[in-house]
Write a structure and sequence with these properties.
- Helix 10 links the parallel strand 16 and strand 17.
- The model has no long low-confidence stretch (mean pLDDT 97).
- Helix 4 crosses helix 5, helix 4 crosses helix 9 and helix 5 packs across helix 9.
- The protein is α/β, with parallel strands linked by helices.
- It is globular and about 60 Å long.
- Strands 3, 4, 5, 8, 9, 16 and 17 form a seven-stranded mixed β-sheet that branches.
- It has ten helices and 17 strands.
- 23% of the residues lie in helices and 28% in strands.
């Protein structure tokens, strides 16, 4: 089969590799849509994962079950499904507390074992969920939506009325749209890119250009200030926008080793809740429900649908096209 493969750090190519087969507890999925995440790029350049190469990347994917192992009872050939990529040990302290996304031995399809940038993928039945009539492209958004919901679960969103999100890329937009499914309607996006701000407005969100003096009026006023840029300076400034008793979410992946300065007295005196978030935590079913609530407009976050071989350019950054969510469409 054709697959995108990482041979070593910085080396990505389209290869012919052996078709997978289903073990007793696995199914083989014919991949139909597989999305690019910035984590895929970090894996390629040694900033995430354990660098076990060669590797087929891709952890946001959906497709059709074409074969099932002998122990598989809840899935059938021809079923339309999406993959939860995380693989946890079930035994470490984090797993015992239900924090499987923080497993001491965390693995994932597309991160530590072959994933979804291939024509076929063998996946444990516990990691596969039916998608009903959702399109494969929309269903492939379930993984990033699951990550977003895991982040929002750190707070009491029922008590929120407003949010300010820095970064109007696909993740920032998914945070905003997911907040609206929880009744938070006053959501403002901040970005440098005018086209992304226009997109936010087309979804009924407020939009402010980064650096605008308009932002000054929002200082100490929002229930949630979130970073979806991964820029340390942006993350550092979030507390300035949180209302007293408000919330700060570090969602964007800042470079390892970078630090920021926050006044602990401010956190104490203004009773600010600060949370980080990593990955998703067994919430693909909730993500699929959120996607259905958001509605078909969510499809507009997919800016590129390309052949598998074209994914190379988005991973090694030789393709400099402005993009939101990029999907390989594999037939």
């Amino acid at each position: 089969m054709k697959a995108i493969t990482y041979k070593a750090h910085g080396e990505v190519q389209t290869s012919e590799i052996a078709d997978p087969s289903a073990s007793l507890d696995e199914v083989v999925v014919r991949v139909c849509a597989s999305g690019v995440c910035h984590t895929d790029i970090d894996i390629l350049y040694g900033r995430y994962g354990n660098s076990t190469f060669p590797l087929v990347p891709g952890h946001e994917y959906a497709g059709e079950v074409i074969s099932v192992g002998k122990n598989v009872t809840n899935l059938r050939e021809g079923e339309r499904v999406v993959v939860d990529p995380n693989i946890h040990c079930g035994e470490c302290r984090a797993c015992q507390k239900g924090l499987t996304n923080l497993c001491d031995n965390l693995g994932a399809y597309g991160v530590t074992v072959h994933g979804g940038f291939a024509e076929y993928s063998a996946v444990n039945q516990a990691n596969v969920f039916p998608i009903g009539d959702l399109s494969y492209g929309v269903a492939a958004l379930a993984e990033p939506v699951g990550c977003v919901l895991n982040g929002l679960d750190a707070f009491d969103t029922d008590a929120m009325q407003s949010a300010l999100i820095f970064g109007a890329g696909p993740i920032g937009m998914l945070i905003a749209l997911s907040l609206r499914t929880r009744g938070v309607d006053d959501v403002t996006m901040v970005d440098l890119d005018e086209s992304r701000l226009s997109l936010a407005e087309s979804f009924g969100l407020k939009a402010i250009a980064a650096g605008s003096s308009v932002l000054d009026a929002l200082e100490k006023s929002v229930d949630l200030a979130a970073d979806a840029t991964g820029i340390p300076k942006v993350a550092e400034g979030l507390i300035n926008y949180s209302a007293n008793g408000g919330n700060v979410l570090f969602f964007g992946v800042c470079p390892p080793g970078e630090t920021i300065a926050i006044s602990p007295h401010d956190v104490f005196r203004r009773q600010i809740r600060i949370a980080g978030t990593h990955s998703l935590n067994h919430n693909i079913p909730e993500a699929l429900k959120a996607i259905e609530t958001i509605g078909p407009d969510i499809d507009r976050l997919i800016s590129h649908r390309v052949e598998l071989k074209e994914i190379e350019g988005f991973l090694n950054k030789s393709n400099t096209s402005s993009s939101l969510k990029v999907h390989a469409v594999i037939s």
